Amino acid sequence: MKNLVMKHTRDVIALGIVALIAVLIGGYILSNQRFYLPNWVPIVGSDFVDYYADFSTAQAVTPGQGQTVIVAGVTVGEIGEVSLVDGRARVQMKIRRKYADIRRDAYALLRPKTGLNDMTIQLNRGTPNAPEIPAGGTVRVSRTLPNVNPDEFLAGLDTDTRNYLQLLLNGGGQGLAGNSQELSATLKRFNPTSQYLARVGRLLGKREAYIRRSITNLSILTQTLGQRDTELARFVRSSNDVFASFAAEQSSLREAVRLLPGALQATNRAVINNDRLQTQLGPALGKLLPAAKGTAPALESLQSFAEATTPVLRDQLRPFTQEAGPTVATLRPASADLAAAAPQLTTAFGSLNNLTNAIAYKPPGGDEGYGFYLGWGGHLSASIFSMQDAMGPIRRGMLLSSCDALAIYEGIGLGNPFIGTQLDMLNAPKTSEVCGSSPAAVASGRKIARQTLKRQRESQGLSETPPAANSATANGEAP
Questions:
Q1: Which of 13, 137, 333, 355 has the greatest count of CB atoms below 10 A from its CB?
Q2: CA–CA separation, 82 vs 63, rounded Å?
Q3: How many domains does the chain have?
């Protein structure tokens, strides 16, 4: 045998190569024919776990044709046999063991992979918080959705709707005839929108649990509102009454809205002024901070002072206040009158204060103020009123007069007996005694006296010749 093999070495090598090629080709064909070896075969063995999904219809699902089960775009198994159970199609899903983690809230969608209705199952395995479906378990029909063909959709429409849809499609075909490029350009403009919608879809997919929770909460809220329809109706009626009240106050609301811009402008100005105040208040508060820190010892001292004065306030001041109550009530009317006169008193005391300041003021230099002369005035007052007689005090005084004025006094006294008597009581000296015998002075004085007497008599309606002058003429004296 050995010699035979050695003799036909080339033939043996050729047969081996042909056998190897046959094995490789057979393995490739079997792999594409979904031929899986048992899991006890090392390396190339496969291990599947069977699950089932109930669909209302399993149209176009064909076992053994390589229809797959996909999770998030990854093929995790294939469709096995299809059976009818309780009027529903039960589809077997052969899932690889490493992906066999199916939860109770999982759902399955039956979708075509190609235009020839090559079906596939898009499986969502559920959330980790849900219980796990054991091997051989079934995804309920409420968690599955079959494929809907266009003919089924059209069959669900009524006759009129189908006719209108036919007219729409015919009109669209006629309108788009020859405008394929414009339609293509229009559809290209929706590319960014589709990208954004895809992003929104992915984000919604990530937040699936939150959306599910929101829908559940909305369902609970709706059920609660349905159970409390009486309270809801009462709330609607109350809201209607409130809106009716608002409608009745429409003019007031319109006036309030009209005044709102002015109020907003005033608020804006106030905010601007407040900003200025804060700008100035910040440094001021910073400077007051040391003083505020220094108030702690003062407050401690004030506390000890308050503790010391508490017995005085309690035992002395409070009884005194109670006893003074009737007196205060009696003085209340007088206080009201005093409050009414307070402005005038304030003005009077202000003037008195100014007068006192003026009297006490001493100007700079050698001049004396009014206070200095006030003392001399008091001294002279004592000297003036130091003598008296039976009629009362005699006031001393000194009058200075010129010769012309003295002559005028004498002439007036001759024309008016009353004034003449008073001038005689002054004991004034004669003109001739103090002024000499100057004829010019005497003549001037008498001339002025005659003019004065004439005006007096004209005003009184008397004769121009006074009685004293007539008597003097009768005695032979010159006028």
A1: 137
A2: 7
A3: 5
- What are the beta bridge partners of residue 111? 120
Which residues have CB under 8 Å from 65's CB, separation 6+?
118
Compute the distance between CA of residue 131 and CA of residue 199 in angstroms, rounded to an integer. 30
Phi, psi of 129 (to 5 degrees): -75, -20
Average pLDDT, the chain: 79
Position 430 scores a pLDDT of: 75
Residue 308 lies in a domain: no
> 15: domain range?
1-33
Report the C-alpha gap between 122 and 69 in whole angstroms.
6
β-bridge mates for residue 55, sequence order: 89
- 259 in any annotated domain: yes
Q: Name the residue type at position 100.
A: A
Q: What does the alpha-carbon distance between residue 208 and residue 230 come to, in Å, rounded to a whole number? A: 35
Q: What is the pLDDT of residue 478?
A: 40
Query: Distance between CA atoms of 83 and 90, rounded to whole angstroms?
Result: 5
Closest CA to 102 of 127, 74, 79: 127
Percent of the chain with pLDDT over 90: 1
- Distance in angstroms (rounded) separating the CA atoms of residues 29 and 394: 163
Burial profile 104-143: b = 16 or more Cβ within 10 angstroms, e = fewer: ebbbbbbeeeeeeeebbbbbbbbeeeeeebeeebbbebeb
